[in-house]
Amino acid sequence: MNINGVEIEDTYAEAFPMRATRIIVTAVNRRWTLNAAHAATGFATSVIACGCEAGIERELKPVETPDGRPGVSMLLFTMSSKEMARQVQNRIGQCVLTSPTSACFAGMGPKEGEKLALGKNLRFFGDGYQASKKIDGARYWRVPVMDGEFLCQENTRMVKAIGGGNFLVLAETQRQALAACEKAIAAMKRIPNVIMPFPGGVVRSGSKVGSKYKALPASTNDAYCPTLKGQVRSALPPEVGSVMEIVIDGLDEAAIRAATRAGIRAACSLGRRRGIVRISAGNYGGKLGPHLFHLRRILK
Amino acid sequence: MKALTLTLKAAPAQRVDLAPITPEKLRGKKAAEIGRIRLQCGNRTVAVAELFAVTAGNCEEIVIRRCTGKFDNVGAGMTCGSIAVHGNTGHRTGAQMAGGTLTVRGSTLDWAGTGMAGGTLVIHGDTGRCLGAAWPGDAQGMRNGTIIVCGNAGERVGDKMRRGAIVIEGNAGDYCGARMIAGSILVCGKAGDFIGYSMKRGSILLTRVPRLPATFNDCGTFEFGFLPLLLRSLGRLSHRAAALSKRASARAQRYAGDLANVGKGELLVLR
User: Fold this and answer.
1) How many other CB atoms sit within 10 Å of the CB of residue B12?
2) Distance from A251 to chain B by nearest Cα, in Å?
3) Is the Cβ pair B225, A135 closer than 8 Å?
4) Which of A189, A240, B104, B173 could be disulfide-bonded to A236 (CB atoms 3.0-4.6 Å)?
5) A86 and A191 co-located in one domain
6) Does residue A46 sit in the same domain as residue A154?
7) Which of A67, A132, A136 has the CB atom closest to B228's CB atom?
8) Cα B165 to Cα B113: distance, rounded to the nearest angstrom
9) Are B127 and B147 within 8 A, CB to CB?
10) Are the Cβ atoms of B233 and A135 closer than 8 angstroms?
């Protein structure tokens, strides 16, 4: 199978179960909304060392937000419910509560998944001057802060989700791989219920499980490192000089399939003539997770 | 299926307790059975059929026509469905109601919504004293739900109110929000004296500065993030609240009080 001369390898991405929540952050204008959201989703590329994977799902118009101000919806993914509670409390407490004019709301339906504290514990920052308001069945906390009040919904919801969907772009040069990935990310950002948690949505340091160093749980995926082609059992054909990966976390399989499809098609739109050689995917022989995303089936 | 309709034949000589007429209490009953229900009337009881012409229909949706202020406890304790009253009602309208919608297309006497724990009470006319207030001996007044009064309200609106929201589209009498524990009261018109007297927590929203008790302090004018949410929610039931929510500004002048009590309540004058 090929698209515009780009070979689609007969392989699959292997993904694993995660927990996810959606949180809506609003502020006085788009700039301050993004300041808060970028801080809250910063250092959240991989659960390996960040505790969670997080990103901005999309920007919201004022008519789409609970308080009628510009907003963003963020998705956070963790490996456990306990870790999710810790990450939400720390990230909202340190990055949203602190951000001027911000407010924070649940981004999931009241009956989805299980309850997750949002402002429930953050309210104690109010030192007894916090006040609650129950509006349309939901409780909100008003925490007095130096610029006025921080408004935060008491709870959000947490659902079962999937992390680690991915595909690899194999190109002749680094610039060509990056150009294809940028195109892919632009297309994938239009798909709801997914985030691509790495910087700009792209990761250049794909990993394999394990290392020669005992302390490390993961290390560089040498089979896909172009500079090691003559040194290791490489998975790369001779013409490939650069590989980049796009990792996808989604609320369900359908969202990851849709994002994978949109991303690969956009990446392949540059075609073989512009140096895009092959699309592949990362897997661990089916041992890591129960969710398998076969590239060719998705693109049919 | 059309609504179950009770049409008053003649005004009763004594006060009548209409508490047995709620959707959950009539569920599964036929018109004849409903007609045999005994209602307390003064110091005796009368059958529903003696007072009302009963037209069979869906018991979840009750319509009471030609009602007068002689009927107390209309919709009291209801938990679901709807009751629409054409005319006035007496005391304790919607008292202890926990769900459903009670609409009075007229005025009510005192104690409407006392002890209310949920649901929606809409009064198209005026209401008397102690709307949503604590019944004597009760530690708390209204505990949840929403009350909308399109006209004026008497004294002691929301006395000891614990949660929920009250909207007075007209004027409110003295001691509005007195001894309030929490919750929200919106007065679109004028509020009387001693507003928020001894309130602990909760918010009283006003459209003009009232005569302030000495134990409320001005905190200044600010943006309050919860105001658009609250006004939009109340605006679904009240056109005056809807108009306020469209005014867009979330700014309000905040007076904290009652500082003679816990002092965590507030009067918010919308700007």
Assistant:
1) 17
2) 28
3) no
4) A240
5) no
6) yes
7) A67
8) 11
9) no
10) yes
- State how many domains chain A has: 2
Asked if B209 reaches chain A (Cβ–Cβ under 8 Å), the answer is no
E-state strands within B172-258: 184-187, 203-206, 217-223, 251-257
If residue A299 lies in a helix (H) or strand (E), which one and from where to where? helix A295-299
Are A168 and A209 part of one and the same domain?
Answer: yes
Using one digit for the tens of pLDDT, what is the confidence trace for B32-90?
999 999 999 999 999 999 999 999 899 999 999 999 999 999 999 999 999 999 999 99
* A29 and A146 fall within a common domain: yes
Q: Which CA distances in Å does A111 have to A114, B42, B144?
A: 8, 48, 21
Q: Which of A141, A159, A177 is the last residue of a domain?
A: A159
Domain containing A137 equals 18-159
Q: Please state the ipTM of this predicted complex.
A: 0.91
How confident is the model over B160-177, as pLDDT tens digits?
A: 999 999 999 999 999 999
- Which of A65, A133, A145 is the best substitution to test chain B (most B C-beta atoms within 10 A)? A133
Say yes or no: A188 and A263 in one domain: yes
Question: Is there a contact between A148 and B264 if contact means CB atoms under 8 Å apart?
Answer: no
- Best of B166, B184, B229, B253 to disrupt the A interface (most A CBs within 10 Å) is B229
For A101, name the nearest residue in chain B, comparing CA atoms only. B225
Residue type, A219: S
A177 shares its domain with A140: no
